[in-house]
Each structure stands twice: as C-alpha cells, then as structure tokens.
Amino acid sequence: FIQMLRSAKKRDVLELLRRAPEETRPFIVEAAVAAQSVASLAALSEFLDFSKEEPKSLLEKFLHAAAFSPRPSGELLHLVLDKLDGKQLAPEIWETGIVAVGSLVGKLCQQKLCGLQEVERGVETILRGLRGAEEEPEVVIYLLALGNAVLPGTIPTLLEHAEEGPAAAATTAISALRRFPARHISSKVKRAMRRIFHEKRKSYEKTCRLAAAEILLENHPSPMDVINILLATKEMETEMATFLLLKVQNSL
C-alpha cells in the first residue's frame, strides 16, 4: 500500500483520504506519512486542517506517525512545522506536535542533515517556545522535545533547567541529558550533576538526585564519584540507597 502511494498523484491520494470510511482514515494517514513522497505529503497538507475541530485522533495519528518515522525527510518536518505554526491548537495536539518536532530534528541530524533549513527552524521553534514558556507543564513539553532532538548545542540550556528549574522541569532536563552519548557528558555536566546529587545549592526531589547519580555512574565515573555516592547512601531511605548500590555494582 505504501509503495502504491509513492507512485500515486496528489489528487489520487487526496481523493482516497476524502472518500475513505472514517475508521480506515488513520491507516491511510499513517501510510501516507510512511510513503513520504511529494504527492502524499502535499495531499496530507491539504487534507489535515489543524485549525478546525476535526477528529483530534486523526491529527494525533499524523503527528505520532511523523514522530516515529525511522528515516524522516526534511519535507515531513516542514509539513509538521507548518501545521503547528501560528494556530490555536488543542493542548494535546500542540504537545504531541512539539515533541514530534524534537524527534524529527534528532533523526534528521542522525542522517547528517542538521544543516537543513527545516531542522534549524525546528530547533528555533523549540528554543523560542522554551524561552517564552511561563507555566511548568509547558516548559516540560519543550524539554521533552529537546530530549528527543539530542543536540549537543542544547546541553547548556538543559543544564540550566536541571539545576534551577522546578521539580518536573529539572527531572525532564536531567532525563534528556541521559540520552546523550558519553563523549558529550563533559566535566561541566558532571560538576552540575554532583551539585544536584549532593544538593549543594538547594534541595532536589529524589528522582532528580537519582537521575543525576545515574549520569555520573554511567559515564566513566571517577573513583571519588563512586565513593561519594556510596557515602551518601548512608543518609538515604532504604529504597533509594538500595537502588544506588545496585547501580554502583552494575557499573563496577
């Protein structure tokens, strides 16, 4: 079916989407995203109207299919960005869309396509949104998108939210940092994780401290880091201490 869509003209794909029974439309939308031909993406662009109150499930299906596409194209990211740009969207559609943008940016960069105009626009969309976000749930969504993108250039932003942000934002930022390969976990990142784990500047939630300890233990830990984490377990509740002791054993 995907092969058929790849050779179909825009008007044929559009006709298929319009005439299909409601229960089969999500399948066709998914297949059209997978086809990623100029015609199938143009048909999707015309068919999906994000400004209307049409079935949210269909719009979410499109965004999920885009986010999970194994080898997305710049055109697919362009389509997602255009559908999100400047529209009043239902909260769940906006959230899924922003996280999908991060996923597409990350996969395009893995394909050595970081220089694409669409990728730069996607990164700027996320960073601009993060700078302007005032509510914690909104900040968390943008941080999730950065976690999906896994761009080394965003590590300073993630560190800032990890150390200074409220609980949910800090946890999300540290989780995003865990997705980076060891070569990007620099001494600066490790110093920040030590401050969080040992609560040098302020108190952190248990999940933040554990995630910070995991980054230290999973990325060429120094003997002193291991010793200090083991010493810290003496003052922790049993469950947290046991978790960290198992982590230390695994890293050894």
Automatic annotation (TrEMBL):
It comes from the Eukaryota. GO terms for molecular function: phospholipid transporter activity. Residues 1-235 form the Vitellogenin domain. GO terms for cellular component: basolateral plasma membrane; endoplasmic reticulum; Golgi apparatus. GO terms for biological process: lipoprotein metabolic process. Coiled coil: none annotated. PANTHER family: MICROSOMAL TRIGLYCERIDE TRANSFER PROTEIN, LARGE SUBUNIT, MICROSOMAL TRIGLYCERIDE TRANSFER PROTEIN-LIKE. This is MTP protein. The gene is Mttp_0.
